[in-house]
Amino acid sequence: MIRRRSSGTLLVTAALVVLPACRRDESAAPADAGTDASPAATTSAGANPASSPPDLAPAPEGPSDHSLPATEPRRSDVKRIEDDPRLSLHRDAVLSHFGEHVGLPLSLQVETLPGDRQALLIQDSSQPDKPLVLVVAADGTRAWTKEMPLAGVVPGVREMTVVRGPEASVGVAFCDAAGGLAALRAWTSEGGIFADYEVVEIPHCEAISALYWPGHGHVVVAAGEGEARASRIDERGMRAWGRSGLTLPWKPDPGAAVGILVDTEDTFVLVGAGTAEGPLSRREEAVFAMRYDERGKGLWPAPIAVGRPSGKTPKRPTARVVAPGKMEVEMTEGAARRRLELSSEGTVIVLPERR
User: Region entry Disordered: which residue ranges (predicted)?
Assistant: First the structure.
C-alpha cells in the first residue's frame, strides 16, 4: 500500500493502521489507515490531542448503520441563515467561521446519521475553499465541529461531499485535482481522526459523489474532462476495484456529477448526463444509467438512455430509489418537469404528472 503525504513524499507500508478516537477538536490531520488488496492508500499527518468541550453532545449509543437507507446527502442552497432551522440554531458557529459578511447563498449538504444525528457540510459561495462541517444531535446540540476539515491536504479543494460511514462515523469525499485523484477523509462518531483514503485515480476531478453502502463500504464517483470513474472502499478500508476503479460507459458533460442509487442490497445504479455511442455507432446525448454489482461487474449490456432533457443539462441528476428495484428520475423539459421510472431490469416508464 502507498501512503501519500500532502508534501508529495511517498511512504510504503504493509499494514492497516488506525488511530483510535480520543478527541473532538478539528485542527489535526488524519492518522495512518486503510490499506487495500489492490493497493488502497491514505494521506497522513500528525495529530495534537485536545480535551473535548464539556457542552458537546455525546455520541449515540448502539448506532445502527443498517437502519438508514444508502443515499447521498440532501443538497440545498440557503439564501438566508434564518431560512434553515439547523443553520439558524448554529448561527454563531457559521458567522464565526465565515465572518459577518458571509457570502450567500450558502451551499448546504445534510447527511443523516444513526441516533437521529445529522452531519452538515456548509460552504460559503464567496469562500468555496473554506468548508465547515458540523455534526448535530437530535436535540440540535453540536456534537463536534471541523473548521478545517481538510487540514493537511492539498489546499484549495472546492469540490467535496459529506458522507456517513460505519458505526456513525462521518467523512468528506473530495477532489484532489493536484494529485489527480478522488479521496476520502474519515472521522469517528466522536469526531476523532480515523483515516484518509486515496479512493480512485482520475486525471481530472471536477465533480464528486459518494454514499455509504452498509456492509459494502463507500462508493465514490468522480467525473471530469469527459471521463467518470467509480470506486469502492470496502469495510476493511481496501479498494475493491483497483486504483483506476470503473470507467463509466459514457462521457460526462462538463462539470456534471454522477448520481449513485442503491437499488437492491447487492447492486447499485449510476446516473449522469453525457454522451455515449448509440445505435448505428452514432453518439447520443442523454441522461444515462448503468447498473453494477458489488464486484463492479456491469449488469446491463450497455448504458440506458433514461431521457433527453431539453434546455440546460443538469449538473447533478435528480433521482431517488422509491422501492427495491425501482428508481425515479426527473427531467426538465422547458418549464415542465417529467418523471421517469427506471427499473433494475433496465426498463424506463414515463410517469403521469402529479396533480
Answer: 26-84
Q: What's the pLDDT score for residue 178?
A: 86
User: HSE on the CB side for 101, CA within 13 Å?
Assistant: 1
pLDDT at 58: 54
Listed in sequence order, the residues at least 6 apart from 15 whose beta carbon sits closer than 8 Å to its beta carbon are: 35
Helix (H) or strand (E) segment spanning residue 86: helix 85-89
Write the pLDDT tens digit of every residue in 291-310: 999 999 999 999 999 998 77
CA dist., res. 269 & res. 287, Å (int): 13
The model's pTM is 0.83
Residue of 105, 145, 133, 212 whose CA lies nearest to 197? 212
pLDDT 10s digits, 103-121: 889 999 999 999 999 999 9
The C-alpha atoms of residue 97 and residue 92 are separated, in whole angstroms, by: 8
C-alpha cell, 209: 459523489
99 contact partners, CB below 8 Å, separation of at least 6? none
Q: Is 77 exposed, middle or buried (0-12, 13-18, 19+ CB in 10 A)?
A: exposed
Q: Which residue has the higher pLDDT, 34 or 161?
A: 161
Element (H, E) at 193: strand 193-201
pLDDT of residue 41: 56
Q: Any bridge partners for residue 113, and if so which? A: 117
What is the C-alpha to C-alpha distance for residues 329 and 341, in angstroms, rounded to an integer?
6
| 121 touches 136 (CB < 8 A) | no
DSSP state letter for 82: G
Lowest mean pLDDT among 95-104, 159-168, 185-194, 326-335: 326-335
- Using alpha carbons only, what angle is made at residue 259 by residues 90 and 343, rounded to the nearest 5 degrees? 125
The pLDDT value given to residue 63: 53
